[in-house]
Amino acid sequence: MKNITGRRLNSTARYNIVLFIVLMFFVGLFTFANPDFLSWYNINLLFRQNLPNIIIACAMMFVITSGAIDLSVGGVMALSAITYAAICVAGVDPWLAVAIVAFMGILIGVINTVIIEVLQIPAFMATIAGWLIYGGLAFTVCGGPNPISKPAMQVITVIDNIKIFGSIRLAIPIVILIVLIFLFLEKKTVLGKYSIAIGGNFNAAYYSGINVKKMRLVLFILCSLMAALSGVWQVARLSTADPRCIGLGVEFAVLSACIVGGVNIKGGQGSVLGVVMGVLLLAVLILGIPMSWKSDIPDFLRWVKSPYLTQVLIGTVMLIVVFINYLAGRGKNYD
Amino acid sequence: MTERNNAARRSGLKLSANGVQNLVMFGILIAIWIAGFIMYPKTFVTWDSIRTILVASTSVIITASAVTLVLISGNLDLSVAGVGAMSGVLFGLFTIAGIPVWMAAILAILCGAASGFLNGFIISRFNQPSFIISLVFKYFTGGIALIASNGLSIAAGMPGNVKDIAQTVFIGEMGIPLPVVYAIVIALIFLFIQNKTVFASQAYAIGSNIKTARFSGISTVKVITAAFTFSGILAAFSGVIIVSRFSVADCSMLPGLETDCIIAAVLGGTDINGGRGTVLGMIIGALILFTLTQIMNLLGVKIYDQQIIKGIVLILGILVNDTIRNKIRV
Predict the structure, then answer these.
(1) B-side interface with A, Cβ within 8 Å?
(2) ipTM
């Protein structure tokens, strides 16, 4: 038993080391191709754009590791952004509104868990339904497809604009703080061990006395809470609450980052550090490839600079990761 | 599976669980129709209204016919919307390039078939979770659609006879749109495949327990690859039909087709974990979904409020199906 546990952790650790080397390789490559890549402006941009993905991916890692999945995060993000804007416009203090939206995120997590655990609906279908319901509610609260953009709600843009030490935007310390909290949850509390246990073998976890429903509740609450806070962050960054674009495609972006970060989609394997590096690797590639081409590329290669390359790129990286895992025999115990 | 059904039917005592499930869902569909008829006695049960429902549900019925088989074999296909968009855009570009419309349609459908084949082959040969691989192909095909169309709607330069594929044929006074004919034909073909062929029984076996299926000599690679290839072909066909209907190729057409297909199949009693489900149930599920949409459109419910209703209907549908399954032992 101990041997198996030890080997599994080692495999995750090895994977993270490889991922870190690959990440550093690409950062080095893009910096070599275009020295502006490592400018503070660019680093700030990378973290400001990917803050939602990073913090949702950390929570999603726990959910997937425990053998469930949460596809409703995109809908939750849209709903929380619109709710935040709507209650700010209604005259609530913006900072109180953040607390209200966070509470709403917790409530949505509870609803998701009730649908999954009490009604016994598979997590995949339950959260697809949640995605439709919360995404639709976002438009209903907004009263139509037109974005809300009023001065009352733009007070919060200050957290995006604060600079510390002259050039670092607040996004970087926020990301580091939240990742540290999740690392603490993973390493120092039962959350990390129990979610791996539930995902690795549900029945074994259940009969060894783990309160599976309670763990599910905690994990889904974490996931929805992070999605709700990400919605508020998007309002802070874009200074407008648009139900059409906030949260669009986030669920699949986060999922692909989790896969790249070494999470086993069937449960039982995954680490916070790996997932964070997964998000960063995809972000670095998406940001770096168009930057590192000089303007004198031949015409037939013009599409390399196309912003639409992103999707193909994410797909390719995922496929490579899947095949590396296949060749390395990772996750074979859980098929 | 079929033998047991036949035995149950011959004894004349009870229906199979699938039969009861389909009957209940059909009853719900009829109830919705009666409700619609009571609310709108003049307009709801007319050929125009029925045609609107049928035309709206064609892409889901066509694609979900194959997606149901994929779900029965215990896999998910998230790539259908991307495949549809890719084939639609390629079809548009081919016709603009001067290739005859029928040829262009066949080429576009072949591209979809290739994507479905690769998708299924990687999943089954390397024993990878379908969720991830089909997500990869969603990104690939969606990306190709974006790059090929450059993110724009393609309409200029498309020849007029593009519309031929999805035109309306008249039988006497009644105009029947060709997409509806295609949907009926494809649904019948897949009803036959699901009920009468070895291929479908093997898919059921794989969905129930892939290891048992493998050890009893079923080639999982062949069956799963074939199921995914069908779904690629039919998704591509839906894309071609949409382009032909509107004479515009857009990279974001067929939004949410993958979730709609899964919702229609699940409403019809398909298990998301594989091993059970029927094409007939999927058709009833799709008709429930689009009849509700039609009623809500008549009531003036906004499109995003319809989304909320759809989510609630999905949860209720799964609950009804689960209750039937738990109560009935055949």
Answers:
(1) 76, 122, 126-129, 131-133, 135-140, 142-144, 146-147, 150-151, 259, 262-263, 266, 272-273, 302, 304-308, 310-312, 314-315, 318-319, 322
(2) 0.88
